[in-house]
Write a structure and sequence with these properties.
The protein is mostly beta strands. It is built from three helices and 24 strands. Strands 1, 2, 6, 7, 10, 14, 16, 17 and 18 form a nine-stranded mixed beta sheet that branches. The chain has a five-stranded mixed beta sheet with strand order 20-21-22-24-23, covered by helices on one side. The N and C termini lie far apart (54 Å).
Length: 291
């Protein structure tokens, strides 16, 4: 009886030691550029459809789903909202399994002749109305959506995220407009391709989009573009008085006087005006997520 009670403790300690002794990720450029396509056509029903391409070499390979989320300072990555994950190479399915001690970590064997993994899955956007975690609450309504890219992209476990390059794209519902710190490379219809960024900067660059969208220039004569991007559930919620706009522009003026420098190439205040998403604010390097 004592042995059966003691055994789980021994296994738990062993698992923790194994995790602690894992090889740290390589701080060097990853072997190739990842591709990420997020289809938001079904965002009004809270389904984000994802396709991701990851260059690989044959042999043992591991993938991480983001676990520790900037701004939340905790292991809060919503892995439980990932559904229907299929991994393939050269059109053939590849078997994968979860790590026995870390549910965010996946392991697989890359077959000979396969140079890229193709991932397909869905992220089921949360539907509850309130949460203490910024990224785990409701973020989509029939008229708008907010995308935090840590929710929709795996990454190679062997490299640091700042050394992994990825090119993202999003497909929006017809007629929707968007705001993001990501820089547009090209747009064809409802599909927007962004310039490649590091995986670290991708996670640091959320996107908002909606049927009712408004962009306001907060520093018309400034050297650094600064905008207030608004999405709302109705056009009436986008209305701002000149006094309100003046107050927001004053924030930029005072910040320029206070700091005298810009540590960003451009800045977007991403703002959701809705009674059907959670309320919080989260700072990023070139944008802020305000709801």
């Amino acid at each position: 009886m004592r042995l059966s009670l003691f055994a789980p403790v021994v296994l738990s300690v062993a698992a923790q030691l194994a995790c602690a002794q894992e090889t740290p990720p390589l701080d060097q450029p990853y072997m190739g550029q990842l591709g990420l396509a997020v289809d938001l056509s079904s965002a009004p029903t809270k389904i984000f459809r994802v396709k991701e391409t990851i260059p690989v070499q044959p042999g043992a390979f591991s993938l991480y789903y983001p676990k520790w989320i900037p701004g939340e300072h905790a292991a809060t990555g919503p892995v439980e909202n990932v559904a229907g994950l299929i991994i393939s190479g050269n059109g053939q399915p590849i078997v994968w399994h979860r790590d026995l001690s870390d549910m965010y970590l996946l392991h697989l064997q890359v077959p000979q002749g396969v140079s890229a993994l193709n991932l397909e899955f869905q992220f089921l956007s949360p539907s509850h109305d309130s949460t203490e975690l910024a990224g785990a609450g409701a973020s989509a309504t029939p008229k708008l959506v907010a995308v935090e890219f840590n929710q929709v992209a795996f990454y190679p476990a062997a490299n640091t995220v700042r050394q992994i390059q990825i090119q993202p794209s999003v497909t929006l519902p017809a007629g929707w407009q968007f705001g993001s710190a990501l820089e547009v490379q090209q747009q064809s219809g409802s599909t927007v391709s962004f310039k490649p960024v590091s995986y670290e900067n991708l996670v640091d660059s959320p996107l908002i989009a909606g049927e009712y969208f408004k962009r306001i220039d907060l520093d018309p004569n400034g050297a650094v573009p600064t905008h207030l991007d608004l999405v709302a559930d109705s056009p009436d919620n986008l209305k701002m008085t000149e006094q309100q706009i003046g107050q927001q522009r004053a924030v930029v003026v005072q910040a320029n006087k206070l700091f005298g420098a810009h540590h960003y190439q451009h800045y977007d205040f991403l703002t959701i005006l809705s009674a059907h998403t959670d309320s919080f604010g989260l700072e990023h390097s070139q944008s802020s997520d305000n709801r």
